[in-house]
Specification:
The chain is an alpha+beta fold. The protein contains eight helices and seven strands. The longest helix has 57 residues. One of its GO terms (molecular function) is ATP binding.
Length: 346
Amino acid sequence: MLLNSRGLAIILSGCIAAIALGSLLLLPDIPVYAYWLVFFVSFGTGYILINVVLEFLFFRELRSIYKMFEQIRANDLSQLEPNKKFGHSSINQIHQEIYDYAHGKQSEIEELKQLAKFRRQFLADVSHELKTPIFAAQGFVHTLLDGAIDDKKNRMKFLKRAAKNLDGLDMLVQDLLTVSHMEAGDITMQKEPVDICEMIYEIFDQMEDNAEKHNITLKMNEPRYEEIKVIADPQRIYQVLLNLITNAVKYSDEGGRVEVSLNEAGSKLDIRVKDNGIGIPSEHLNRIFERFYRVDKSRSKAIGGTGLGLSIVKHIVEAHKSEIKVVSSPGQGSTFSFRLDKYKPQ
């Protein structure tokens, strides 16, 4: 700034001193020392008062605003400070509006950086997940083309393995499409009365062979033919329960136990899926619903899955105006829970 508070204070206090001397000249018989005294007193007092007033009410705020513009010009928005409200109200308002604008832009920049990071991570995860089944199926097909197709003993084995990997690839693509549609809001929940008890026992019947193979007990706190209805999209809630129960069986040790419980909570029905399996360390709990996130990558790969199941569960539950929660600790198992609106017959 070319003009600061001191320079302006000198000019204004000089004007005040000159006016005071001019007024004094109109009076007769004034000694010379009185002129000097009036000049220094008026000039000094005026300088101090004007300098203080200008500095605190205007120039300090103007310097702060100028500094904010420099930071905005240099894209250094993270160091901006809010207005301390020392200056004039109009300047304070200008300062605050500039700060609010810059702060909003900083938030947008941080959000864009975070989205770019997620996009890079998502592309890397998708590439990695797609690579495994594609390379495996490609290897089996090329092996057959290189002459193994004439070997009757291995021909069907290679074809079955290639088909299995292609089925896994198809499942991954379908899950990716589901997640993308849900995040874009393209999927609308078709809610209707659903017998949740019947649905859970249907999933138990579907999982029975796999559970028996590992000596895992499937149990529910309500009898098979009890009718308990909720308002939900039957297809999507079936997908949620199937995913949670399947995961509970997958991550349970030999001879484990998977329990599903239904408990009334006012106008809601609390649904819990509990296992006594390997559990989830606390540092992973806030990330298990991310796409492709795996707590134990080696074990997850061994038992299969696309890595999108819990992400789909989260989106479906949130689309039902609810929240999926998890309580877990290593070696103690995990409990996933969410709530749905109970059906009230008219």
